[in-house]
Amino acid sequence: MNCTIDYLNNWLKANLTEERYEHSLGTAECAKKLAKEYGLDENKAYLAGLIHDCAKCLPKDECVKIIKDNISFCPLEEGELENYKTHHAPAGVCVAKKEFGIDDEEILSAIRWHTIGKIDMSEFDKIIFLADKIEERTRPKEMIIPIKEAITERGLDAGLLVCYKNTIKSLVDRDLKICKTTIDIYNHLM
Length: 190
Prior knowledge:
Blueprint: H1 5-15, H2 18-37, H3 42-51, H4 60-69, H5 88-100, H6 105-113, H7 123-134, H8 141-154, H9 156-173, H10 180-189
């Protein structure tokens, strides 16, 4: 990394909405806590959580351009470009590499997979994915309680399963396409 946490915070404040910045801080805090519980690098988890949504507030067409210009090092899953809500993850990998000088593969992977996930995510990927869903600064309690309970009672994969059930229901309710990977992961977790 070729920048400081102060630089990251200032960049995020300038490039995210106030609520998205608060969410990023909450995700970072939650990721650090989960990393400690699961014996992973807490500082790396904090950093990944902090920047996981770095491309979230970029215009849709800019995200697509970033993705297409960098497809060689950040390939897409089948149908992934069809839902604009997931574009910020692969675009975020590019921003993290180019803007912040992040070259840590665990951090880049966690940013890449925090939206749709993938089968056999690493423990680090899982904690960033879950921290994004259960941070307490901006996520509603009724959303996070069942996920946290599943994690506490049965582990990270149980928390992931609750997330995927909720995601699929939400996408159906909003008449949005469901990425094939999402269905595959759900089936794998079942």
